[in-house]
TrEMBL record, chains A, B:
The gene is maiA. Belongs to the GST superfamily. Zeta family. One of its GO terms (cellular component) is cytoplasm. It is an enzyme of class 5 (isomerase). Residues 88-213 form the GST C-terminal domain. This is Maleylacetoacetate isomerase. The keyword Isomerase applies. Its EC number is 5.2.1.2. Residues 1-83 form the GST N-terminal domain. It comes from Pseudomonas nicosulfuronedens.
Length: 213, 213
């Protein structure tokens, strides 16, 4: 049985919950509260499992795997059906490039520890912090919107969602939470509408996790 | 012939130069100056090639691929020898997880556009900005240092460097540039010393690029 160390509102953990659902893999979830107790991800026991002190962490037998995209690749290599990525190397690269734009150039600028640093050591006021969030999310998602313009099907695998949607949907969840302007992203919203009707996405949603507040 | 849109001091472009060198692939380099002209990555011609308005971009025939790690995966799938990743899925996941920690949780917080936003809209003073850089680099690299503690060989592929070293060496270059404290990272410095003796790394170094200043 797989074990996922997760936090309901972590968008990186949300990606992995989607991928596990798409593959129909059963897993046990262990909540790691990113705020309580000064952040349970910094506790000695968790740090010994994952020195990166971040969620998610997937435990598969004796193996411990950090980083959501490394977990997605691992799941796709060890449980190939249904695949999360196209088969053609160029199409795989295009999907990975859009996903990495979310995972490297949008999400990390708005995750909890960065927002805490802005408020704390840098003394950034709430309004300016919200502008910071919206700037990176809106700039980044507009580029992703352009990136999906030439797709032949409605989703990254034609009629099926995969790696890309596992990254996009959590980022859109965050964008809505911070009331970002998504009016320039009709294609992404259409992708989201399709995904939201699917069980794998419904069961991965933050609000239905055991640790949701 | 492959074409790489690059900037000498971009650590994401540096990763791809290393990977191309490790695979012995010839390529033409097109410099994109990230500061001059308000940032040439925002110019209409470049934006039409890469809507993400970031370097690197690899052009292979008609294909255009953004995001350094998507490019590394593409090169490894289309030119498998010598491989950049181990063969075993779990070992691949461990290498990807450490690389993604650099690419998602260290580098994006310190790249040029983020530092410009800190200085500009947020009015962060130079000294506080330097502390910000050092905080994320030092915290992140300490976790990477722990991550390599159990390796059986000196490098990620035993005696050979690959995907991981292509991410690590540019990050260490940045760390030194901002005078980060690397005293807690002896294993990473030993890996760097080995890599620096290899031609693929020497030829990818920022200072020897055609656009170096």
């Amino acid at each position: 049985m797989l074990t996922l160390y997760s936090y309901w509102r972590s968008s990186a953990a949300y990606r992995v919950r989607i991928a596990l659902g798409l593959k129909g893999l059963a897993y046990r979830q262990v909540p790691v509260h990113l705020v309580k107790d000064g952040g349970q991800q910094h506790a000695v026991e968790y740090q010994s499992l994952n020195p990166q002190e971040l969620v998610p962490l997937l435990v598969d037998g004796d193996a411990r795997i950090a980083q959501s995209l490394a977990i997605l690749e691992y799941l796709d290599e060890t449980h190939p059906q249904p695949g999360l990525l196209p088969r053609d190397p160029l199409q795989r690269a295009q999907v990975r490039a859009l996903s990495l734009h979310i995972a490297c150039d949008i999400h990390p600028l708005n995750n909890l520890r960065v927002l805490q640093y802005l408020s704390g050591p840098l003394g950034v006021a709430d309004e300016a912090k919200t502008q910071w969030i919206r700037h990176w999310v809106e700039t980044g998602l507009r580029a992703v919107e352009e990136g999906v313009a030439n797709w032949t099907g409605p989703l990254s695998l034609g009629e099926r969602p995969g790696y890309f949607e596992a990254c996009l949907i959590p980022q859109l969840y965050n964008a809505r939470r911070f009331e970002c302007d998504l009016s320039g992203c009709p294609r992404l919203l259409a992708i989201a509408a399709r995904c939201e009707s699917l069980e794998a996405f419904q069961q991965a949603a933050p609000e239905v996790q055991p640790d949701a507040q």
